[in-house]
């Protein structure tokens, strides 16, 4: 259920709750199997666990669980916040990606940017993480940075086209955010008919 990029379009998808449960179980087995089971306690609110966490893994699991409860309530902002907290405690790229997608869908661009940087630190060659990096830079008004990131993708091992970039910007950014990025790409390759055509398509 990872994000896909057919024809350059960025499609963001969440893992199913069933898949998320499997992630939680894997984290539990990896980090918490040896921890003693806490004693039974009375009813708890969503605000805090019954006992202090014994490890970062336990805290990450709790945050993922709370995030899923928030999603079931339809509270995307709270879900994004809980997943972001879990991602900061985890070295699992799939969990960090999940938190990034939630933040991105909630419109939390700065939070999504920070999560993307963490994802890239763990998976520097991930092409989807690179596309998020460029789009988020555009959304944050950093057009020169976004153009630079797209330049790398134009000439990288999984090269994308100018037209793919134009479509990606059209789908994932406003005209005010995307046009300055495309303009800088055209200025960097003034002889490229493909670049000029892609700019015209976006404009």
Q: Could you characterize what this model shows?
A:
With 203 residues, the protein is mostly helical. Helices cover 65% and strands 0% of the residues. It has ten helices and no strands. Helix 1 (17-31) packs antiparallel against helix 2, helix 8 runs antiparallel to helix 9 and helix 8 packs parallel to helix 10 (193-202). The chain is elongated, with a radius of gyration of 20 Å. The two termini are 33 Å apart.
Question: Any chance you could write out the topology, listing elements then pairs?
Answer:
Blueprint: H1 17-31, H2 56-72, H3 76-88, H4 93-105, H5 109-122, H6 127-139, H7 143-154, H8 162-172, H9 175-188, H10 193-202
Helix pairs in contact: 1-2, 2-3, 3-4, 4-5, 5-6, 6-7, 7-9, 8-9, 8-10, 9-10
Largest sheet: none
Compute the number of helices.
10
The oligomeric state is: single chain
| Unreliable residue stretches | 1-18, 31-45
Helix residue percentage: 55-70%
Mean pLDDT level:
82
The percentage of residues in β strands lies in under 5%
What Rg do the Cα atoms give?
A: 20 Å
Shape: elongated
The helix/strand order is: HHHHHHHHHH
What class, by secondary structure content? Answer: mainly alpha
State the distance separating the first and last CA atoms. Answer: 33 Å
Task: Give a quick precis of the structure.
With 203 residues, the chain is mainly alpha-helical. The protein contains 10 helices and no strands.
Descriptors:
203 residues, mainly alpha, 0% strand
């Amino acid at each position: 259920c990872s994000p896909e990029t057919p024809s350059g379009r960025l499609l963001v998808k969440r893992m199913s709750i069933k898949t998320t449960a499997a992630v939680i179980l894997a984290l539990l087995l990896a980090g918490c199997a040896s921890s003693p089971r806490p004693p039974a306690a009375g009813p708890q609110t969503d605000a805090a666990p019954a006992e202090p966490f014994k490890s970062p893994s336990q805290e990450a699991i709790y945050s993922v669980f709370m995030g899923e409860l928030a999603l079931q309530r339809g509270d995307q902002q709270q879900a994004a916040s809980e997943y972001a907290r879990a991602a900061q405690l985890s070295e699992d790229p799939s969990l960090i990606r999940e938190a990034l997608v939630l933040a991105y869908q909630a419109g939390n661009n700065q939070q999504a940017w920070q999560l993307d940087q963490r994802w890239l630190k763990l998976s520097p060659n991930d092409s989807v993480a690179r596309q998020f990096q460029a789009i988020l830079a555009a959304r944050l008004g950093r057009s020169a940075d976004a153009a630079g990131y797209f330049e790398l993708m134009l000439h990288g091992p999984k090269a994308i086209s100018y037209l793919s970039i134009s479509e990606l910007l059209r789908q994932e950014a406003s005209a005010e955010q995307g046009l300055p990025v495309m303009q800088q790409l055209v200025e960097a390759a003034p002889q490229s008919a493909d670049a000029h055509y892609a700019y015209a398509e976006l404009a």
